[in-house]
């Protein structure tokens, strides 16, 4: 009986709160990361990027003006944002460590398709009203599911024809741009391309 009386005085709620605050709560980001974020994205992108690049072609276009309604951000900022951040961890303190991409979504008159110039590295420059050479994937260009407003053709490399795009002029450095392009493709395949499509295009025939 004495033992039962003693147990009744033990502050179980308090003990549970202490255990939760000291052990469970700090472990939550690691638990969620292991269960959810570990396989959320296409982790084999670094093995698939060369196949994507090998199917790419270059096209020449003239970009619309910044204020043009051909720039889809001007038509609907909610549907066509200027960028996106990809969450790779449950830990809110690491929000700014999550990878992000800048978007330039526009209607291309030359090919009658919507396109999205995607950059996972900040391009401090200007595309507007310039003649550009865009690198696009041939399969994407030939796929009728690409080129719509909601699913524009991804453009992972853009350089100026007669003048640089980047204010720094880095886009005239072929070595730098080759590295930029490779990293851009890997990040696009890993974070942006839908998992089902990645599996179908790069893993189904292995």
Q: Explain this structure to me?
A:
It comes from Prevotella jejuni. Residues 44-202 form the DUF8188 domain. The chain crosses the membrane at residues 6-25. Keywords: Membrane, Transmembrane, Transmembrane helix. This is DUF8188 domain-containing protein. This protein is α+β, with helices and mostly antiparallel strands and 206 residues long. It folds into 2 domains: 2-37, no CATH class; 45-202, no CATH class. Helix content is 37%, strand content 20%. It contains 7 helices and 6 strands; from the N terminus they run H-H-H-E-H-E-E-E-E-H-E-H-H. It has helices spanning 2-8, 12-35, 45-54, 72-75, 138-142, 174-192, 195-202, and strands spanning 56-62, 83-85, 100-108, 113-119, 131-137, 153-160. The protein has a 6-stranded mixed sheet with strand order 1-5-6-4-3-2. Strand 3 (100-108) and strand 4 (113-119) form a beta hairpin. Helix 3 (45-54) packs across helix 6 (174-192). The N and C termini lie far apart (69 Å).
In short:
The protein is α+β, with helices and mostly antiparallel strands and 206 residues long. The protein has seven helices and six strands; from the N terminus they run αααβαββββαβαα. A six-stranded mixed β-sheet has the order 1-5-6-4-3-2.
Topology of this protein?
Elements: H1 2-8, H2 12-35, H3 45-54, E1 56-62, H4 72-75, E2 83-85, E3 100-108, E4 113-119, E5 131-137, H5 138-142, E6 153-160, H6 174-192, H7 195-202
Parallel strand pairs: 4-6
Antiparallel strand pairs: 1-5, 2-3, 3-4, 5-6
